[in-house]
TrEMBL record:
<keyword id="KW-0472">Membrane</keyword>
<protein>
    <submittedName>
        <fullName>Threonine efflux protein</fullName>
    </submittedName>
</protein>
<keyword id="KW-1133">Transmembrane helix</keyword>
<dbReference type="Pfam" id="PF01810">
    <property type="entry name" value="LysE"/>
</dbReference>
<feature type="transmembrane region" description="Helical">
    <location>
        <begin position="115"/>
        <end position="136"/>
    </location>
</feature>
<feature type="transmembrane region" description="Helical">
    <location>
        <begin position="40"/>
        <end position="61"/>
    </location>
</feature>
<keyword id="KW-0812">Transmembrane</keyword>
<feature type="transmembrane region" description="Helical">
    <location>
        <begin position="6"/>
        <end position="28"/>
    </location>
</feature>
<dbReference type="GO" id="GO:0015171">
    <property type="term" value="F:amino acid transmembrane transporter activity"/>
</dbReference>
<feature type="transmembrane region" description="Helical">
    <location>
        <begin position="148"/>
        <end position="170"/>
    </location>
</feature>
<feature type="transmembrane region" description="Helical">
    <location>
        <begin position="67"/>
        <end position="88"/>
    </location>
</feature>
<keyword id="KW-1003">Cell membrane</keyword>
<dbReference type="GO" id="GO:0005886">
    <property type="term" value="C:plasma membrane"/>
</dbReference>
<dbReference type="InterPro" id="IPR001123">
    <property type="entry name" value="LeuE-type"/>
</dbReference>
Length: 202
């Protein structure tokens, strides 16, 4: 493994981070509802679980899923169910005030919200596996694999922290509050569709 491999991986990772998906929606809502600290803490949870999926891909979990399709199906159904539950909850609270929804949660709850959001998508592990196969040589040492995982944690934490700082400004929060019912229901629809797509696609 050399630096061009790592640069290519980080570029792909950043492109995936900014694309619309469950992780981005969870990070966005955490920041706009609870502020900068909550958004950053949620980002930590997202980053840790995403890096764990990459670590599992490096250790060959994708091969296990291929050998035992029921294991992947189980993980996929559980993840899809969580995303659909999250979508229903978001839809039902769209018209509630921040005080009713609970705009600020504990650091532990914020971290776990991010962590579970990425647990809910086993396809991110398969994505990581495909990216790793394309970018990195097959004969990497255990030390190189550990470095890739730690690198991903750092890159994602930096990205989510920058994201939270940019969106935690008073104008951004005021704009969200003004459009909260519409934005929450749009986000709920997207999460619901992603959950159904995860459950129904092979």
């Amino acid at each position: 493994m050399d630096w061009p491999h790592l640069v290519a991986f980080n570029a792909t990772l950043l492109a995936a981070l900014v694309s619309p998906g469950p992780a981005m929606l969870v990070a966005l809502r955490a920041t706009l509802l609870g502020g900068r600290a909550q958004g950053i803490t949620t980002g930590f949870g997202l980053a840790i679980m995403a890096a764990l999926w990459t670590g599992m891909a490096l250790l060959g979990l994708d091969v296990i899923f291929a050998l035992f399709p029921w294991a992947y199906t189980t993980a996929k159904v559980v993840g899809a169910t969580y995303l659909i539950w999250l979508a229903i909850k978001m839809w039902r609270t769209a018209h509630q005030t921040l005080e009713t929804v609970g705009d600020v949660v504990s650091r532990n709850r914020a971290f776990m919200a991010g962590f579970y959001a990425n647990v809910a998508n086993p396809k991110s592990m398969l994505f990581a596996a495909s990216v790793l196969v394309v970018i990195f040589p097959p004969d990497m040492t255990l030390g190189n694999k550990l470095f890739i995982v730690l690198n991903q944690i750092v890159v994602e934490i930096v990205a989510y922290t920058a994201f939270a700082i940019a969106l935690s400004t008073p104008p951004a929060r005021a704009g969200y509050l003004a459009l909260k019912p519409v934005l929450d229901r749009c986000a709920a629809l997207i999460l619901g569709v992603l959950g159904l797509r995860l459950m129904l696609t092979k």
